[in-house]
Write a structure and sequence with these properties.
single chain, alpha/beta, five-stranded mixed beta sheet
Length: 268
């Protein structure tokens, strides 16, 4: 579960900002000295305690994993209460027009958020306007842009989208940057292959493509070409270090662009 937290900025100070926000909320309601406001503060603390009991622990993560892909969906259980909890005190201060409290809340939350992952303009490593405002790997942007540029230059109908096959790293990132690109390898196929290896009993066509793009395997060319045609893949992005140019050229899959670490191939 700790790995999931880190993957989705859980190791940043979001959780610290959440704790600070809950503390500000509790202090504000308690100092008003009214019974119903005091109860509001108690409810907030109770809600936090319940969250720790039922969400923020390894047992909840394992139980959820029995019913779905916990590494994908578990983040929503902690992201939603955390983000809304952070937003509430700051929004409340603005709405009430309390300048001192508004400034204090803003400073506390800004400091917590700024020292997190490479998501904000300021973080613990540097202070500047990022050249890559998306916070994505340069390969992702270069490969995605090259695919869309080639697709549009080829005069393809705007109603259709290019189908591309990526390794696990690029596939995860491309869906964030360019949603118009369709996956040639399904997420389920990757998960199945990771668990069972190349048994080719299920997702056989996609596993053949996985072998090429994810590991640079040079297996039967005709089988790979058959799989590309059946799936309808238009592009392959493969790490340049795998040296696949000659292997792919014999089945009319030719390089058309390069990024820092990848070569983009077009299926002719």
């Amino acid at each position: 579960m700790l790995g999931v937290f880190r993957q989705y900025n859980g190791d940043s100070l979001y959780l610290a900002a959440f704790a600070a926000s809950m503390g500000l909320l509790y202090y504000r309601e308690k100092t008003k000295g009214r019974q119903h406001h005091s109860q509001t503060g108690q409810k907030a603390v109770t809600a936090l305690a319940l969250a720790l009991l039922f969400v923020f622990n390894g047992l909840a993560y394992r139980i959820l994993g029995k019913f779905n892909d916990a590494s994908t969906y578990y983040r929503f259980f902690w992201m939603l209460p955390v983000l809304f909890g952070i937003a509430y005190p700051l929004t409340q201060a603005f709405a009430a027009g309390e300048k001192k409290k508004m400034a204090a809340a803003f400073v506390i939350l800004a400091v917590c958020l700024a020292f997190g992952k490479n998501f904000f303009f300021a973080n613990k490593d540097y202070w500047h306007l990022p050249q890559n405002q998306y916070g994505l790997d340069a390969n992702t942007i270069m490969i995605s842009d090259a695919i869309m540029d080639d697709w549009e230059q080829a005069g393809q109908p705007s109603a259709q989208s290019p189908v591309a096959a990526f390794d696990m790293f690029l596939e995860y990132q491309v869906r964030t940057y360019e949603p118009r690109i369709q996956w040639g390898i399904s997420r389920k196929a990757y998960l199945y292959q990771a668990q069972h290896g190349y048994d080719y009993k299920k997702y056989a066509r996609q596993q053949s493509v996985i072998a090429a793009v994810n590991e640079g395997r040079k297996e039967d060319r005709k089988v790979l070409r058959h799989c590309l045609d059946k799936i309808g893949i238009n592009y392959l992005a493969i790490r340049t270090e795998f040296d696949m140019d000659g292997y792919l050229a014999e089945i009319s899959v030719l390089p058309i662009a390069h990024s820092v670490s990848y070569t983009l191939y077009k299926v002719k």
